[in-house]
Design goal:
CATH topology of chain B: ABC transporter involved in vitamin B12 uptake, BtuC
Shape of chain B: globular
Distance between the termini of chain A: 60 Å
Number of helices of chain A: 19
CATH superfamily of the largest domain in chain A: P-loop containing nucleotide triphosphate hydrolases
Largest interface: A-B, 70 and 38 residues
CATH class of the largest domain in chain A: Alpha Beta
Strand content of chain A: 15-25%
Strand content of chain B: under 5%
Radius of gyration of chain A: 24 Å
Helix content of chain B: 55-70%
Distance between the termini of chain B: 19 Å
Oligomer: heterodimer
Shape of chain A: globular
Strand order of the largest sheet of chain A: 6-7-8-3-9-10
CATH architecture of chain B: Orthogonal Bundle
CATH class of chain B: Mainly Alpha
Chain lengths: 540, 355
């Protein structure tokens, strides 16, 4: 598969003056025709920056790019496209009110007679391309109605329509369910067979081993190694990512060991111990959903949900995201009120369904949607961090600057947030944004913490830190709800696992009967009828 | 992502050049108009650039205009910052001016301080009411405050004009104006014979106060967060309903204050159309100042200077166009185009630090 390099990057250096970070330091990279090239590294290693340079979104300070042995200038995404380079972003930008086809043809609109947009031709083109690659998406759906994974597929479709020679994918599988991941990989292979090169940015080493031909490991803005995947192993890659030249501490060694088995087991390292926090209510809180239903039109997207979670446990909720996980997240965070049924905290029905009230009664929440809900991208990092502590950091309505600086510096240090506190949030990488959200939600005392898809985009180290935080919270007597479509994550963290299927709890699995296979059966609805009884058992 | 001023203590530098480019473009168009539209370009240019500084009268009037623009500009930004839009500033200023005049005319015997305070309070209250209602409607029923504030203002302007030329008209005057307010209500003039008065000092104190409230208080923080991302604000437990009605009311109140000062300090009477355009210019000023209370000070000065220069050029040459209106239109166009089409001037360098 690997031939002479089609694309060569030489000495690419990108320096961000405003936060004094050299994101890329003299990076060399060769991409062969028709290869799948994985790009791995921790959050902030410079992977996305490098790809933004290559796809024309930012300009490098130094270095050159050669296509077919000839130097080229890439000053804009249009320049990149002219050389066949197209990037699908980690959080693909889109126009919310637009339909799928409108979003896809934006920038390549074909006009018919009288200079008018030929709508039918555009929609047909999108439909044809989608069916060729086996992507199922309604070209007339509104973008803001789509799930995160569908938005990714739409962005991918848009990229494919532009006939790329090189397709850059930034964590394409992060929001995907397992069948979607399989679809994505099948698609990548067929593209590869057609001679398209692919650069895959990912945190999942399993994916690297599965689909990539070559892998480049980046650390601190520099390339540490590029090898053929066949000649290396996942633990070796993990070692390179974390750094072998600096002393491998106890933590890193265990992390590497954990990684070798399964990326998700990393939390087992159990490091980052901290002094235990006293919780306001001790160990007796309970959170109960009692006959909760939510309707969209006539469809019950949550259908008579009954679950009780106890303080001191991690309740995992898994399933295919579209089978009700989003709505469960919204109900548990007070973002929407159930149409029927109630949420009870400590046996008492909550008074109001608003995030404000839920926070007031001690429910903390890490949302799936980090960009719109979890962060204010135009506010500074510090302002994002103090959201929940604003009342504690003021005297007579005036914010105490010094205390804010101390508080935010502490969070930044503890969670290893890379970035400058007084800079806008939008300058941070995806993983760092999530670290800001996590550190904010876990600061202070909470009875209940709801995590929804918390590990998307996090690197191994941050994921490990989050998992140990989650366990520590539980051990200190907090009640943790983990909503995640990632079966492995739920398996390794949750004490009990509720599996959702079509808006219902298809089953609740206790310690003894939790296996991937069992969960899979419930997720896909195989056992729906037998298991209803089990679902109601917890209801008393 | 919207190109809005980032909420850091120091205003971000990267965005300033865009404003400067817009202002320079406006200046260039103005110079071209003067050169090609005037029979005596040299005189017109001289009048435009130096006119505002040529004597105390012009200079004082320019500063007076800047003071009113500054207060109204702060009003515009109070709403903008919370993500709501008060397009009814023009009507709010106009009616508040009339109300201030009427209060003073109704109580000619009142002590100076009481009369002035009453006039200011009444004017602020009427501004708050008119804009606050739009915010309240948005909160209650989701009506678009941009439309309601504009429409209410559009109805207010002719109504106020009717009152000034009709029932409240001073029959002795040649102007379409109310009677002049009693001498002891008039604010101290700082640079006679110009209109410059104490209102400017008040405006200059108001800007840092607004800055403090916006950047150093919890409510200011909540207001800015709500303006930048309502979903995030709601998620964080901020009462976003309050930050719909309240900023509109504050915005209307500041416009009202500007209208009151136009009567108490500048004109001493409500004259037909005497503040028309001030509300719109204040929007341009707020945009030039990127809705930052401290940057609005130079923005108001620059805008007032260009406006005064245009007036001087018209008076000193046979320039036939409504030059002032054209210059305002050019600035307005350049600034709003730059807000609507961000990132066209400058390539985004270092937009994100990578994953």
């Amino acid at each position: 598969m690997t031939q002479t390099p089609w694309l060569q990057l030489r000495g690419i250096t990108t320096y961000f003056a405003e936060n004094n970070v050299t994101a890329n330091d003299a990076v060399d990279l060769d991409i062969a025709c028709g290869s799948v090239h994985a790009l791995v590294g921790e959050n902030g290693a410079g992977k996305s920056t490098l790809m933004h340079v290559l796809s024309g979104y930012i300009s490098a300070g130094a270095g050159r790019i050669e296509v077919d042995g000839k130097p080229v200038q890439i000053r804009s995404p249009a320049d990149a496209l002219a050389h066949g380079i197209v990037m699908v972003h980690q959080h693909p930008p889109y126009v919310p009110g637009f339909r799928v086809w409108e979003n896809i043809v934006l920038g390549m609109e074909r006009t018919g007679r009288a200079g008018l947009l030929d709508r039918r031709a555009a929609a047909d083109m999108v439909t044809a391309c989608a069916s060729r690659y086996g992507i199922s998406v309604d070209p007339h759906a509104r973008m803001n109605r789509l799930a995160a994974s569908q938005i990714h597929f739409v962005a991918l479709l848009g990229a494919l329509l532009r006939g790329p020679r090189l397709l850059i994918l930034d964590e394409p599988t992060a929001p995907c369910t397992e069948p979607e991941v399989a679809l994505m990989f099948a698609l990548l292979r067929s593209l590869q067979a057609q001679g398209t090169s692919i650069i895959l940015i990912t945190h999942k080493l399993g994916e690297v081993m599965q689909v990539a031909d070559r892998v480049t490991v980046m650390r601190n803005g520099a390339v540490v190694a590029t090898t053929a995947v066949a000649e290396t192993t996942a633990p070796r890659i993990a070692e390179l990512m974390i750094g072998e030249d600096c002393q491998i501490g106890d933590f890193d060694r265990r992390l590497v060991q954990a990684l070798a088995g399964d990326g998700h087991a990393a939390g087992a390292t159990g490091l980052h111990s901290r002094p235990p926090r006293a919780l306001p209510t001790g160990r007796d809180s309970t959170l109960e959903l009692h006959k909760v239903s939510v309707y969209v039109g006539a469809l019950a997207v949550l259908d008579n949900i009954n679950i009780t979670a106890q303080a001191g446990e991690v309740l995992g909720v898994t399933g295919i995201r579209e089978n009700g996980l989003e709505f469960l997240e919204d109900v548990l965070s007070g973002s929407i009120a159930p149409d029927r049924g109630v949420v009870l905290l400590d046996g008492k029905p909550v008074k109001r369904y608003s995030p404000r009230h839920f926070r007031h009664i001690g429910i903390s929440y890490i949302p799936t949607d980090r960009i719109l809900r979890g962060a204010s991208m135009d506010s500074t990092v510090a302002e994002n961090l103090i959201l929940l502590q604003r009342k504690e950091l003021q005297t007579g309505g005036v914010l105490r600057r010094k205390d804010i600086t101390a508080f935010t510096e502490e969070l930044k240090r503890r969670y290893g947030i890379t970035g400058v506190l007084h800079q806008p949030m939008k300058r941070l990488s995806g993983g760092n944004i999530q670290k800001v959200i996590l550190s904010r939600e876990l600061s202070g005392l909470r009875k209940v913490v709801v995590f929804s898809e918390p590990s998307w985009g996090l690197d191994l180290r941050s994921r490990d830190l989050m998992y140990s935080e989650m366990r520590a919270l539980r051990d200190e007597g907090a009640l943790v709800v983990l909503i995640s479509a990632d079966i492995d994550e739920v398996l390794s963290l949750a004490d009990r696992i509720a599996v959702m299927y079509r808006g219902r709890i298809a089953g609740i699995l206790e310690a003894e009967d939790r296996t991937r296979e069992r969960i899979g059966e419930f997720m896909l609805g195989f056992q729906e009828h037998n298991i209803t009884a089990a679902g109601e058992r917890t209801n008393g | 992502m919207a190109e809005k001023p980032a909420a850091s203590r120091a205003p971000p530098r990267a965005q300033t050049p865009e404003t400067v480019v817009a202002l320079l473009a406006a200046l260039l168009v103005t110079v071209l108009l003067l050169v090609f539209g005037s029979p005596n370009p040299a005189r017109a240019l001289r009048a435009f650039f130096l006119g505002p500084f040529s004597n105390r009268y012009y200079f004082g009037n320019m500063l007076d205009g800047a003071g009113l623009l500054l207060i109204a500009g702060l009003g515009v930004s109070a709403a903008f910052r919370a993500g709501v839009f008060n397009l009814g500033g023009d009507g709010q200023i106009y009616i508040a001016g009339l109300v201030a005049a009427v209060v003073c005319l109704a109580l000619p015997q009142a002590p100076a301080l009481i009369g002035i305070v009453l006039a200011l309070v009444a004017a602020v209250a009427v501004g708050m009411l008119l804009a606050g209602v739009c915010g309240l409607f948005k909160y209650l029923w989701g009506t678009d405050e941009l439309i309601t504030s504009f429409l209410i203002s559009a109805a207010i302007v002719p109504s106020v004009s009717y009152l000034i030329v009709g029932p409240l008209r001073n029959q002795q005057s040649n102007l379409l104006t109310t009677e002049r307010i009693a001498e002891h209500f008039r604010l101290l003039r700082l640079l006679p014979p110009s209109n410059l008065n104490l209102a400017l000092l008040f405006a200059l104190l108001l800007a840092p106060l607004a800055y403090f409230l916006l950047y150093h208080t919890v409510r200011g923080y909540e207001l800015r967060i709500t303006g930048l991302n309502r979903e995030f604000a709601r998620y964080g437990g901020i009462a976003i309903g309050a930050y719909t009605a309240m900023p509109m009311a504050i915005s209307g109140g500041l416009h009202g204050l500007s209208g009151a000062f136009a009567v108490l300090g500048t004109h001493h009477a409500a004259i037909q159309g005497f503040t028309i355009g001030l509300g719109w210019n204040a929007i341009a000023v707020a945009l030039i100042g990127r809705n930052h209370p401290l940057l609005i000070i130079p923005a108001a000065l620059i805008f007032a200077y260009m406006e005064a220069g245009a007036k001087a050029a018209m008076l000193h040459t046979e320039f036939s166009f409504e030059l002032g209106a054209i210059i305002q239109a050019v600035i307005f166009f350049m600034i709003t185009a730059q807000v609507a089409l961000p990132r066209l001037w400058l390539r985004p360098r270092g937009r994100s630090t990578a994953a």
